[in-house]
Amino acid sequence: MKIEIQPYNDRFKEQMIHVWENSVRATHNFLVPSDIDYYKKIVSSIDFNSFPLFCLTKVDTVLGFIGIAENKIEMLFLAPEHIGKGFGKTLMNFAINELGANKVDVNEQNHNAVNFYSKFGFIPYDRTDKDDEGKEYPVLKMKLKTKQ
Questions:
Q1: What are phi and psi of 142, to 5 degrees?
Q2: Which of 51, 105, 111, 121 gives 69 a disulfide partner, CB atoms 3.0 to 4.6 angstroms apart?
Q3: 139-144, strands of its sheet edge to edge
Q4: What span, in angstroms and rounded, lies between the C-alpha atoms of 59 and 13?
């Protein structure tokens, strides 16, 4: 079966929420469970048609997704069973090369994500003590290193 990157379609929303939750539970061990539930409500209310969002699919099964707004990666999540298989790299290369992504905000405590983005040439340029919701989760603002 062929794996492809497809533009978001409303038929993917339920699967995406499921992928998001499973991914966060598997990779964001610094979050308290009640905060995961809090963020899930926010993610569930997003209008995914309001910005460029692409799903990595196998047939019509969502394996992961990436969302971009104003050249910034706003979200990148993979189903836990697909982490470490090159799918994140596929989405990143698409975001950088096809969509012009050059910035990302990442939870400082998510060391695997910080390392992942660093491998693509992203470097920290700023830091906040709290996330966008005002919670005590520091955020690293990273940008793609310009080639000299």
A1: -120, 150
A2: 51
A3: 3-7, 53-58, 61-69, 72-78, 103-107, 139-144, 122-128
A4: 15
Q: Which residues have a Cβ under 8 Å from the Cβ of 37 and sit 6 or more positions away? A: none
pLDDT of residue 147: 59
Tell me how far apart the alpha carbons of residues 68 and 99 are, in angstroms, rounded to a whole number. 8
* Overall domain count for the chain: 1
Place of tokens 């836990």: 80
Predicted TM-score of the model (pTM): 0.93
Task: Output the CA–CA distances (angstroms, integers) from residue 8 to 50, 56, 86, 109, in the order listed.
Answer: 10, 10, 21, 29
Rounded-to-integer distance, Cα 143 and Cα 121, Å:
8
Beta-carbon count within 10 A of 109 CB? 15
Domain range spanning residue 26? 3-144
Q: Average pLDDT per run of 10 along the chain, which is 148 residues long? A: 92 96 95 94 95 95 96 96 95 96 96 96 97 94 82
Task: Give me the residue label for tokens 């995961």.
Answer: 36
Q: Which two tokens stand for residue 137?
A: 């989760």
What's the per-residue H, E or C state across 63-110?
A: EEEEEEECCEEEEEEECHHHCCCCHHHHHHHHHHHHHCCCEEEEECCC
